[in-house]
Amino acid sequence: MSCYPINLKLSGKRVLIVGGGKVAYRKAKRLLEAKAEITLVSPTVIDELKYFVLANNIKYYQREFKKEDMLDTCITFAVTDNRRVNSLIASLADKHNLLVNVADSLEESTFTLPALIKQGDLLLTVATGGNLPALSKRIREELENSFGEEFKVFLELMKILRPIIIDNIDDEKQRRKIFRELADLELIRLLAEDKDEFLEKLNKSLPAKVRKICDLAYIAEDGFGL
Predict the structure, then answer these.
(1) Final residue of a domain: which of 113, 140, 173?
(2) CA–CA separation, 75 and 193 (whole Å)
(3) What is the pLDDT of residues 171-207, one digit of tens each?
């Protein structure tokens, strides 16, 4: 299966979930994290999803799917246990050129969801083209052990440092050199192992002009949040 990987901004966008089981619940949680405007359609829902809908003020229609439900949606998830309904949703999506993910049919889906590792702004995804999702899960579990919370904290620090470096280092080659040195996995992992050594090495990677503007010792007082 040939796919084009993409990260979508769904904030404020209407997304439809048809189905009320565990798969629908998992989709709803991830979509809420993306700040999507979720609409759920299903005659019944599992308890976890019911409480989730109530707690997050999600629009829920307790009935069977209608084709009108897909009006003004940018993405639809067909996750019912009814093959006929899922296929109907896929057909309507194809007719109206809409993105659809069909839980029980890779062939009818216009996109798939990869296994996901997220640490703050760091996002890693793994996919196997639908051939063996269990392998995606296994690789994701291995990656989770390699990319811990220190990467989240480091990228929060880069939100502060990067604009300062760009604004104060005029030479483009020097800027690139600084960013290459900062993109050091061993340096980042020191955050979880030895914060004092991390701070020392980080300071060595930064020009004096940047160190003067950004008080890293002050930022480090709370242990960088770890």
Answers:
(1) 113
(2) 42
(3) 999 999 999 999 999 999 999 999 889 999 998 889 8
User: Is 104 a domain residue?
Assistant: yes
The whole-model pTM stands at 0.80
Specify if 60 maps to a domain: yes
Q: How many CA atoms lie within 13 A of 5 on its CB side?
A: 9
Q: What is the pLDDT of residues 66-117, one digit of tens each?
A: 999 999 999 999 999 999 999 999 999 999 999 999 999 999 999 998 988 9
Q: Say if 136 falls within a structural domain.
A: no
User: Are 19 and 109 part of one and the same domain?
Assistant: yes
For the chain, what is the radius of gyration of the CA atoms? 22
Domains in the chain, number: 2
Q: Which of 158, 154, 148, 121 is nearest to 224 (CA)?
A: 154
Q: Which residues pair with 14 in a beta bridge?
A: 37
